Structure formats: C-alpha cells, structure tokens
Amino acid sequence: MNRHTLIRAPRRLETARLLLEAPSRAHAAAVYDSVNTSLPTLGFIAWAQAPWTLERAIRFCEGGLKMVDDGECLIFNAFLRDRRAFVGRVDLHSFDFETPRAEIGYVGDARHGGQGLMREAVLAVVGLGFEMGLARIEAISEVDNHRALHFAEHGLGFRCEGRLHHRERNARGDLCDQMMFAAFPPA
Question: Is the Cβ–Cβ distance between 1 and 134 less than 8 Å?
C-alpha cells in the first residue's frame, strides 16, 4: 500500500441509504449549511468553532479534493440517496504505509443524528480501507468527547486501547488527553 493506492481508490461508495463521494465544489453549499446548523454539537472539532461562509466551505471542499487527488487521504461526503441531503464527512488520514494503518475521522450533520447514518457511512469507509490493505484503523477522540468515545466503541465496534496523555491541543488550544480505539480486518 502506498500513495498511489489512495490515488486509485474509488471516489464514490454506495450503501443501502447513502452515497459517499469525494469532495467537490458542488458540495460546498451543503457543507456550509451543515456546519452552521450543527455548530452547537461541534465543540470538539477545531475547524468548526465559528460560523462558516460559503467561500470557506468552497475552499474546504476544494482543499479536500486536492488532498484526495494528491494521495494524502481519502475523504467522502455522505448524502442520503433518496433526497441528496448531506449527512456528514468521513475521512481516512495520517497514513503509515509501512504498517499499514490510518486514522479515521467523522463529523455528522446534527439534523440526522440517531438514525445510524454516520455509522453506515463510517463502516463503508472502514470496509474500503481494509479492502485496500490496511491492517489497522484508529479512531482517536478527546477524553471529554463522550459521544465520540461511545460511538467508536459501541456504534462502530472499535476496541479501546487506552489513553494518550497530552497528545494534541484541543479546539481551545489547551493540551488534552485522548482515547485511542482501533479496528482490524475481519478474520
């Protein structure tokens, strides 16, 4: 597995209820609306601490597509198949091709919470990662982000591997502890 594996990876996935697509400028209005609507639930997301402009959403989508095109990461924006409503974003990033492993990130639109849609989207991307040859996918969240910790362990079935002390700065700029979860390919 290497950067070229990511460049050649599918740009579109389908699940029973969702279409997952690599970011595009056409997604910007939906992302803009989602971030601004979901702001009260995004306290742990550093890039979502203030209202967005449409221009910022355009730059975010175009920048995401460039990272995908360059083989830095895989990013998918998830939409309901029937209404094309934006559900959220899932990405595989921070690849270590030698292991091979990656981290997974996900942010859902608050209006679609509790329906299992983000679980469906994340598991589709996890499945793709394992099909591409990953031996490990990590989910890392701040210790105070109880919703994300519960989702990783109980919603996704990732195994908790422990606490990482002072691993990063949080959205407020303070050093914070994080919890590490991991998933492995099916046996």
Answer: yes
96's enclosing H/E stretch is strand 86-96
Q: What is the mean pLDDT of residues 63-75?
A: 97
Tell me what pLDDT residue 48 has: 79
* Sheet of strand 12-14: strand arrangement: 12-14, 18-21, 74-80, 86-96, 101-108, 136-142, 175-183, 159-169
The span from the CA of 59 to the CA of 43, in Å, is 21
Q: Let me know: does 90 contact 125? Beta carbons within 8 Å.
A: yes
Put residue 126 in one of left, alpha, beta given phi > 0 → left and psi -120 to 50 → alpha: alpha
Say yes or no to pLDDT of 115 above 80: yes
| Predicted TM-score (pTM) of this structure | 0.93
Token pair for 167? 């691993």
d(CA 154, CA 140): 14
Q: Is the peptide bond before 100 cis (omega within 30 degrees of 0)?
A: yes
pLDDT of residue 10: 97
Report the pLDDT averaged over residues 19-30: 97
**What DSSP character marks residue 153?**
I
Domains of the chain: 3-140 (3.40.630.30)
Amino acid 120: pLDDT: 98
